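S., here's the first fold you wanted:
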Amino acid sequence: MDSQPDGTDRPTMADSPDGSSAGVASRLGGGTPVWQRRSMRRAVAAGVTAFVVGYLLTAVAFLVEMRALSLGNDSRSGNLVSTIIDQAVGVGGRQVVASSGGELALALRSVGWTFFSAQGVPLSGTASGLGVSASGTVDVLTLAGKAVEIPLTPPLYYLIPPLCLAAAGWWLARSGPVSSMREGAVTGGLVLAGYLPCVAVATLLLAFSATVNLVVASGTITARPVLWRALVFGTGYAVVFGGLGGVVAAKIRAS
């Protein structure tokens, strides 16, 4: 105990059962220690950054591949988005591009669908018209590996989410009080706090719906990432690869 001017005693770390600052904070009524609150803010920032950087890198790779095709006068560069939607819902790809504000809006969604596909999240599509509806799912990168109509390079995109999350986990563990590889794994996995909300919001933003003109009538098509897969795989990727980054940081610190 340390004596106060008024004669009362103030608890110190030595008086805490576990000798930790958390114990002192609890006895002082201060709630969560400041360093823990800061760590959680860093975890959220790291997770959000990993998601945004991952999307942007996917967009760069996507645009580079499309640019290479256009320079080679390959017609597939102009039909890629239509092809993805056609594969998901079976009809209406070209009409969708024409009736939904142009290729750019769909290209931005296609980048997101590709980013999600790199994490094992497929695209779910439905088509309805004349009282009949049909639905299906398609994994953009799996399809790209099989169909020449989607000229993407799957291995390139599969690397992006793990690398971004590992880097985020490494930074988070490196900037925190990590003293063992186990603590590094736990700390790195906290990128989930920022990554998973981004996944949930993006799943909603990447949803697509439009009315298209079919042969004899109009119809409606929708396409969106499968929500439960996005949440499950988003959690798994953040914990596993963020944790691996944290382990690397702890190992480097120990060496």
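And the second, which I think is the more interesting of the pair:
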Amino acid sequence: MKLPDQKVIATSAIVFVAAFSVAFIGLSELRSSDSQPYAEDLSIRVNSSIGIATGQVDGKNVTFFQQGTSEAKFFIDVTNDKQPDREIDIERDGEIHRKRIFATLEGQTYSLTIEYSDDPDVEGDAFMEVVRAEALK
């Protein structure tokens, strides 16, 4: 019985290690790509009765403000300092609207779906509610 020479053994070992490494790395990548990015239905609401509301998006605090009851203005605080960082532009026609806004919280950007309404002729009817948040890649 003839034993295989060292070149055959070394080549077989290299091929086996390479195949095992590729399979292991591929399985790891497959597992990591299966994880879904953050997405959640929410209910963070501000209106003439609730002028400030803080909620959590992916474990991070975000605060919304309403200012005024006639032709209300809505703001978002993404720096968690309880101060408005930017105004959210809305249409004021008395209809309920849905739109997406984008906010970066602690380095991660999220798409926030909001529903809102404001009729400039009706005092105290304005509201805004964040109904969904999704992390962007």
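Why I say that: The mean pLDDT is 85. Residues 26 and 37 are 20 Å apart (CA to CA).

Talk tomorrow,
H.
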